[in-house]
Amino acid sequence: MEREKITKQDYKEKTAPYRAWLNSISIPVALIVLFIAVFLGLTVNAAGMIIFVFAIITHVNYKKIQAPKICHVAPILYYVYNVVSVFYVMSLIAYPQVNIVSALLSLTNLVLLILVIAFYFVAAQAIKKQFPRMKEDYNEAVQAYKGKK
Predict the structure, then answer these.
(1) Residues 39 and 23 sit within 8 Å (Cβ to Cβ)
(2) DSSP codes, 46-80
(3) What is the structure's pLDDT at 46?
(4) pLDDT recorded at residue 2
(5) Residues 6+ away with beta carbon under 8 Å from 113
(6) By the 8 A CB rule, do 44 and 36 touch?
(7) Listed residue (62, 50, 53) closest to 24, CA to CA
(8) What is the sign, positive or negative, of the torsion defined by CA atoms of 92, 94, 99, 102?
(9) b (16+ CB within 10 A) / e for 92-124
């Protein structure tokens, strides 16, 4: 039983860089798809909240794998983006007509979203540079974990 716990812990440690890298790629892609869907008028009920939860998980994974400091910029910018979004929605509710505050908050949100997407891709590159064998380590860990099960 103790051996299984060690193997599971090793599995988590060896797969963490690849999972962090994969999240760093999937979050901006999901944000782009979400933005396009909203722009086209499609209803996306909880997708933003799911992406936010994945951003938090990714930020925690960055800390676990001791990723470069540049990797922490994207999640923090995404948190700021979400806070500004709350104020943007509040301004739309308070002043349904077009006003300068809503326009500025909307523009700020767009700039923040572009920065978030760019910095997630930069984070993915930094992780790839720090862990050049992450895919091989991931595959080896998966095979070892499945073999022990």
Answers:
(1) no
(2) SHHHHHHHHHHHHHHHHHHTT--GGGGHHHHHHHH
(3) 85
(4) 46
(5) 31, 35, 81
(6) no
(7) 62
(8) negative
(9) beeeeeeeeebeebeebbeebbebbbebbbbbb
Give the DSSP per-residue string, 112-140. Answer: HHHHHHHHHHHHHHHHHHH-TTHHHHHHH
Distance (Å, whole) CA 27 – CA 35: 12
Name the DSSP class of 97: S
Place of tokens 């908050």: 105
Contacting residues for 66 by C-beta, under 8 A, at least 6 apart: none
Q: What is the CA radius of gyration of the chain?
A: 19
Structure tokens at 68: 């470069």
State which amino acid sits at residue 92. Answer: L
Q: What pLDDT is recorded for position 146?
A: 80
The two three-digit tokens of residue 146, written as one number: 């499945």
Q: pLDDT value at position 109?
A: 93
* CA pair distance 72, 60, nearest whole angstrom: 10
Per the listing, tokens 């944000």 go with: 31
Residues 125-139: tens digit of each pLDDT: 999 999 999 999 888
